[in-house]
Design brief:
The chain contains 11 helices and 13 strands. It has 344 residues and is α/β, with parallel strands linked by helices. Strand 3, helix 4 and strand 4 form a beta-alpha-beta unit.
């Protein structure tokens, strides 16, 4: 399959190039960057030296790029992918957007949280969280790849929502991310003296992944879900650990909780269940497409606490996009992603 990557110089775009290099059914034909047009990608990411020698192009001629591609992966900030999608709508090329533009069924929710007008409201799109929306992804023209925090959080809570084991208004998610989730552009808060030996919350009660999590959990439970989501930044390059809390419904047992997780995920290769009492960690999924999950039951407060660990650049971005690509093409989902996490 001929692949083009729009916005190849951000961390997610570069991670796509790294993973696609090892994919036996993918051939990179175009990579773009407006700020580095004409440069070799390996001059910006030396880890690709000798492996990916493509020259960065401008996305100004999207018609040509789209006509020359079977799939276009878009790794741009929000507000840009919908213009690409609209411009390619008349072509047979399929799109996987790693940003937020195509994640929401209701574009009014997108506009309220992202503060930009949605210019491709008529687009037929599906939500790209592979384990939960696989059948929709197979046929999709446009796939809105799930976000990083959302992937960790939704996968943690999906079994409980699907089996209606928890009060859907009681959910609190406390999540920590490595700094690569903030992108490659330098910012004061990501400056080494600011970040090192520091740990802080941000965007409390206003993070844009909140409605995305609510949308998926509402779908799964059939109940309108409103939750608290608080992200934190930790001084590491990659990884997310999400801790999710919810009140169990009256009479729900620990056995029912465990059965819900096993029923939904026992046949999912990229979900590794550590079981009740387990402790996932970011280092154990680093560089991989795995999600490690464990849960704890607090009998005193009648809460369930779910721990979820992913690599934000792989399962939370590029790896998930390739998993969606595999599903859409009818390939084995593990193709190009079946490798052991890096350790230590």
């Amino acid at each position: 399959m001929k692949i083009s990557v729009i916005g190849a110089t951000g961390y997610a775009g570069a991670e796509l190039l790294r993973l696609l290099y090892g994919h036996p059914e993918a051939k990179l034909v175009h990579i773009t960057s407006e700020s580095h047009k004409g440069e070799k990608i390996a001059s910006l990411y030396p880890n690709l030296r000798g492996l990916c020698d493509l020259t960065l192009e401008s996305m100004q001629d999207m018609e040509k790029i789209g006509a020359d591609s079977d799939f276009v992966f878009i790794a741009l900030p929000h507000g840009h992918a919908m213009e690409v999608g609209k411009g390619l709508a008349h072509l047979p090329v399929r799109i996987i957007d790693l940003g937020a533009d195509y994640r929401f069924k209701d574009t009014a929710v997108y506009e309220a949280w992202y503060h930009v007008p949605h210019t491709h409201k008529e687009a037929e799109r599906v939500y790209g969280l592979a384990e939960l929306y696989r059948e929709d992804i197979r046929r999709a023209k446009i796939i809105g790849n799930a976000g990083c925090f959302t992937t960790a959080s939704i996968l943690a809570l999906a079994p409980l929502a699907k089996e209606k084991l928890v009060d859907m208004q009681s959910i609190v998610i406390d999540a920590k991310s490595g700094v690569s989730g903030a992108g490659r552009s330098p910012k004061q808060g990501n400056h080494f003296p600011e970040l090192y030996d520091n740990f802080k919350a941000y965007n409390v009660a206003h993070h844009r992944h909140t409605p995305e999590i609510e949308q998926a959990l509402t779908d799964l439970s059939g109940e309108t879900t409103v939750l608290n989501f608080t992200p934190h930044l930790v001084p590491m390059s990659r990884g997310i650990l999400a801790t999710s809390y919810a009140h169990l419904r009256e009479g729900v047992t620990a056995e029912e909780v465990g059965a819900a997780f096993h029923s939904l995920y026992d046949n999912e290769y990229f979900i590794r269940l550590l079981g009740e009492g387990g402790y996932p960690s970011t280092k154990e999924v680093r560089g991989s497409n795995f999600t490690d999950l464990a849960w704890h039951i607090d009998d005193r407060t009648h809460r369930v606490i779910v721990l979820s660990a992913i690599d934000n650049l792989v399962k939370g971005a590029a790896g998930q996009a390739i998993q969606n690509f595999n599903i859409a093409c009818g390939f084995d989902e593990k193709t190009g992603l079946d490798f052991v996490p890096m350790y230590p």
